[in-house]
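For reproducibility, we list the full input for the NAP complex.
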Amino acid sequence: MDIHSTRTLHNGVQIPLLGLGTWQILSGPQAENVVGWALESGYRHIDTAAAYDNEQSVGRAIERSSIPHNELFVTTKLWNTDHLIAEKAFATSLKKLNLSYVDLYLVHYPISQTRIQAWKSLEKIAKTGQARAIGVSNFTVSHLKELLEQCEIVPAVNQVEFSPFLFQKELLEYCQKNKIQLTAYSPLTRGLRLDDDRLLDLADRYRKTPAQLLIRWAIQHEIVVIPKSSQKGRIIENGNVFDFSLTAKHMDVLDNFNENFRVCWDPTKET
Ligand SMILES: NC(=O)c1ccc[n+]([C@@H]2O[C@H](COP(=O)([O-])OP(=O)(O)OC[C@H]3O[C@@H](n4cnc5c(N)ncnc54)[C@H](OP(=O)(O)O)[C@@H]3O)[C@@H](O)[C@H]2O)c1
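The corresponding predicted structure, in tokenized form, follows.
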């Protein structure tokens, strides 16, 4: 396994296990540099969203890298207020990214009144071939059950907050059973639990950093993982997780860190 290793989505599309998160990476030189460093250090998967306001810079960094799109995996997302104009919003994202297709297009959040309609639009987009795969984000088991009863295309991915401190086992098992690939966002708890003594102790044993342990834990659960960093050294560090593996015992130890700790929004409140 290495930084180019992939998981196969239910429609056969390959998604690299490790991607770069780009939330809060500022559009302009910062985003162009950060995405450029990630691509230079071997990342082949970039996660952006219309709401991050940096699609244009992601597109520029990709162009500057000269890496052909078919060797990359680019995800973007439909913002909440655009559910009823999804096709138009998608066209805008494509234009900003300066790409002729994206690899994955996600419904960013399961807004109650509009999520099913948004999904129907994503199905149309998928049929045009302009999104190689479509999926959802922040969907709970109950949101997924509702969607699976009504959809024509099963979402290929559900991107949710996931870390040992928010080990959503039931959601993981439900997704696995239904061939929906889980992607872990905020896998580093935005840094808020990286000084946990038990995690530091375990990281020492592997001569790795706490961030590397959290990323490796997700990968060993066969979860795609998209840590964000705006610093070159950390981008490299976060990608350097393919030269060790956690024992079954230590995976179990990390699984038991769960404290339902969220750093982002709580979609269980969305009926
Ligand atoms: N679908 C959704 O609703 C949703 C929601 C949230 C996030 N996401 C996606 O998931 C990505 C990752 O989540 P996130 O940005 O919320 O949080 P995260 O990846 O858990 O953590 C990012 C934070 O950790 C720091 N960090 C990164 N690597 C580190 C390292 N090796 N050691 C110490 N600190 C480190 C970063 O600081 P520096 O930048 O200074 O390194 C940043 O403050 C996002 O960027 C976005 O693409 C999606």
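The domain at 6-191+218-230 is CATH 3.20.20.100 (TIM Barrel). The beta strands are 6-8, 14-16, 20-21, 45-47, 73-78, 104-107, 134-137, 157-161, 181-185, 224-225. Both points were considered when choosing residues for closer inspection.
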